[in-house]
Amino acid sequence: MNLDRAAQRSDGLEVDLDASVPPSTRKPRRAQDAAARKRKKRHKIHGRRPADVAPAPAKSEINVTPLVDVVLVLLIIFMVVTPMLHRGVDLELPVTQHHGKRQDTGEQIVVSVRGDGAYVEADRVEVDKLAGLIEKELKAGARPVNVRADRALRFGEVRKVLEQLHAAGAPMVNMETQETKE
């Protein structure tokens, strides 16, 4: 008789523990061992973690790839649109070679001169009233004045505007031109 399935009574007789189970329902010893190993393995896989083992921290990384895509698209849009933006009215500037370049910071007063009159920014102004308007603009603070004159104009018409700017006390007057492309 198997010692692990038998119990020894106090008087020394062995009693078969499997005697109460009919032989047809008994599992063979190998099948019992395999089932026990399977339960143990399932318990190991699905069992609870001991209290001293902390769960893994939550992944809190931000995916920056979409952000970079959006920023690059915006950069391309601004690079394409920025050269198209100009202050003042639309006109064809005189062409020069090797002229000094200054960045338009937005603080300058832009005076455009076309065949139909003078414009401050995009507002049409009579040439004889230009000095008073520029004086008011300069009272807020000394700012440079950029003069944009159409290429088709005679210099005498541009000179009238320059005299008005001088009478208004403009500290610095710049003539805008377009550099030739070689």
Q: In a nutshell, what does this entry contain?
A:
This protein has helices at 29-46, 65-81, 130-139, 155-168; strands spanning 6-8, 14-16, 95-96, 109-114, 117-120, 123-125, 145-149, 173-176, 178-179. It has 182 residues and is of the alpha/beta class.
Oligomeric organization of the protein chains: single chain
Q: How do the strands of the widest beta sheet line up side by side?
A: 6-5-4-7-8
What name does CATH use for the topology of the domain at 95-179? Nucleotidyltransferase, domain 5
Proportion of helical residues: 25-40%
CATH A-level architecture of the domain at 95-179: 2-Layer Sandwich
Low-confidence stretches are 1-5
Task: Report Rg.
Answer: 47 Å
Order of helices and strands: EEHHEEEEHEHEE
Form type: rod-shaped
The N- and C-terminal alpha carbons lie at a distance of 110 Å
Share of β-strand residues: 15-25%
Largest sheet: 5 strands, mixed
